Amino acid sequence: MRKRVRIILSLVVASFLLIGLTACNSGNDKVRIAEVTRSIFYAPQYVAIEKGFFKDEGIDVELTTVFGGDKVMTTLLSDGADIGLVGSETSIYVYAQGSNDPVINFAQLTQTDGTFLVSREAVEDFSWDQLKDSTFLGQRKGGMPQMVGEFVLKKHGIDPHNDLELIQNIDFANISSAFASGTGDYVQLFEPQASVFEKEGIGHIVASFGTESGHVPYTTFMAKQSYMDENPETVEKFTRGLYKAQQWIQTASAKEIAEIIQPYFEDTELELIEMSVERYKSQGSFATDPILDIDEWNNLQDIMDEAGELPQYVEHETLVNTDIADSVIE
């Protein structure tokens, strides 16, 4: 009987020790990220998770996809997430509304537009003027995809509100299915959806908005100023993990990257993922470091102004923190 009691006590003690060790080993900082969509465009983020670059820095990531920039910002402002991955224009909108806790851009992920122009019909010799008198299935008004789309159209002498029929009343998450069901002659899509449609014969990629619009802070990691003030070490460790992924991607092949991020696109063939990665790599869409510089910030506001969506001009230093990225790189 006494022997049995000793065994039970030993097991209890061992259990408490195991729990204690587990608690000590799980001392990583938990960071909740709300991403604006699930896209191969965000490959460096998935690489940072899958290659353990965040984990090596003591960061445990909880990733949630929240479709739409407005929804990401709502999640961030209501403390449903610590960090948002979304277009930098959203931080300007919040600031213009008079927020006393502004959202700060601290690490850039992508540096070009990530959408492609997809035509319903095959086009041998595409020219932008072919969009005149067509039906164009656009993106959400005030969002970066739509503003860049309008910027590029105007660059090619097309008035998006008079020279074609612009459809903007479809929710972001339903745009691809609307095109697949027959709405629109042209649509603006991210990868891998653009390549999937091309393979299935639903549409044909004819141009890249990324190569047409120049460098812009298209998607960045941002957080409320209060969160950054309260968690400076966490933000720095997060940025360092991201930078490691950005460096790795620069030397890795499209195939290597595709194999790493495939778990995030289980319904997409590896070959299509690789093709999409190669498209983004070849046009320099993935930022090579986390720094969001002044020229990119000003280009963003020029695009917003051209679209009539810039509520006010905001200085770079007001909503962008480059000190963290600078220290990580050094």
From TrEMBL:
Keywords assigned by UniProt, alphabetized: Signal
Annotated coiled-coil segments of the chain: none
Keyword Signal carried by entry: yes
Compartment list: Periplasm
Database matches in Pfam families: NMT1_2
Membrane-spanning residues: none
Family label: Belongs to the bacterial solute-binding protein SsuA/TauA family.
Protein name: ABC transporter substrate-binding protein
Taxonomic path: Bacteria, Bacillati, Bacillota, Bacilli, Bacillales
